[in-house]
Amino acid sequence: MNAPIPPQRPTLLEMASNFKEATGEWARSGFPIVEEKEYERRHRVCNGCDQWDSNAFGGVGRCHACGCTGFKLYLATSVCPLKKWAADLNKDGRPDSSETN
């Protein structure tokens, strides 16, 4: 029986494209960041994911699905590529501080 093939990690070019897309959306929305409670929730989700390497980038962490670092967890416009968490914005595109997660 053959061993399962590990998922393909994003290439450097794909990571650069993902970064450009994420930061572009973040800039167009006015650079909103999530509140500490939402950051901590996202961090717990990522730490529990098999695609997350918490030791990468000196402990900042890295997702093997999209190549992002833990800094992406702060961006209110960001979404998890595995749909484990969504952007944290109201309908007007501003950070949503009214939700209790």
For the structure shown, list the relevant keywords.
single chain; globular; mainly alpha; 101 residues; disordered C terminus; 4% strand; two-stranded antiparallel sheet
Global geometry: globular
Structural class: mainly alpha
Biggest sheet features? 2 strands, antiparallel
> For the CA atoms, what is the radius of gyration?
14 Å
Distance between the termini: 43 Å
Strand content: under 5%
Strand order of the largest sheet: 1-2
The tally of helices reads 3
Protein described:
With 101 residues, the chain is mainly alpha-helical. A two-stranded antiparallel ribbon has the order 1-2. The chain is globular. It starts with 11 loop residues before the first helix and ends in a 38-residue tail after the last strand.
Helices and strands, with pairings:
Blueprint: H1 12-28, H2 36-47, E1 52-53, H3 56-59, E2 62-63
Antiparallel strand pairs: 1-2
What is the gist of this entry?
The protein has helices at 12-28, 36-47, 56-59; strands at residues 52-53, 62-63. The protein has 101 residues and is mainly α. Strands 1-2 form a two-stranded antiparallel ribbon.
